[in-house]
Amino acid sequence: MNERQKSILELLSKSKELSVNELAAQFGVSSVTIRGDLDYLENERLLKRVHGGARLHSEDDISQRIGINYPRKAAIAAKAASLVKPGETIFIDAGSVNALFARELAQIPDIQIVTSNVYIARQLKESRVNVIILGGLFQHDSESVVGSLAKMGLERINFSKAFIGVDGITKSYGFASNDMMRAEIAREAILRAEQGFVLSDSTKIGKIAACTICSLDEADCLVTDDGVSAAQRKKFEKDGLKVEIAEN
To answer: How would you class 133 by CB atoms within 10 Å of its CB: exposed for 0-12, middle for 13-18, buried for 19 or more?
Structure first.
């Protein structure tokens, strides 16, 4: 992906829908060039083409959310991948950042991935990474597996690190999700792992989500972007949470 295509995703994150002519004027290139960019990004499932332009989605489908704040999410994914060592077995929760993270892991040898999300498993279908998918109730929009069977599956698998996504981060309610059933699986994973990592862009800091996954001190590390302020970082670290900053 070139820098212009990354910038297109960033603009769409703010405007939701833009025309080919608007983008061509913004970047000083031809409409043919912009259409080529949009075709590429649509093939990557990062946006949806509409008549005369393109737009992003904010629905529960992971593929429709990856393009929102894409540069930040891609930087977080790359930073998180640098924390995984060859030979490790790790758990990956649902989430758009985690989907990009899974793509990064294809380059790491001899790792094994446990996941509760079918979309994330599909990101690794062209790689040689071993993937274990939990069983349970399938959520069609998010492609997550939830419920008692998924929780039982987690109890029988050992992994060194868990990487989860969240919808909100506050001191009072900790790391939280808007989906109660996914929150239950994420909590089980992060408490079972030797190290628990939360992957989230900084826009989630200060937001309250419906269901708490875990408190701030129950996770080991927050991997986020440079939008987190120095004051916020200091507060997190005072609560015993390490903060890793991804530069985009």
So the answer is: middle
Nearest CA among 123, 113, 138 for reference residue 45: 123
Domain that holds residue 138: 70-246
Residue 50 forms part of a structural domain: yes
Residue 41 CA: distances (Å) to CA of 35, 36, 46, 48, 157: 10, 9, 5, 8, 37
Whether residue 150 sits in one domain with residue 35: no
d(CA 232, CA 172): 14
What does R_g of the chain's alpha carbons equal in angstroms?
A: 18
For residue range 193-228, what is the model confidence (pLDDT) as tens digits? Answer: 999 999 999 999 999 999 999 999 999 999 999 999
The residue written with tokens 């930087």 in the block is: 75
Q: Are residues 39 and 89 in the same domain?
A: no
State residue 114 phi and psi, 5-degree precision.
-105, 130
Instruction: Confirm whether 62 is domain-assigned.
Output: no
Q: What is the pTM of this model?
A: 0.80
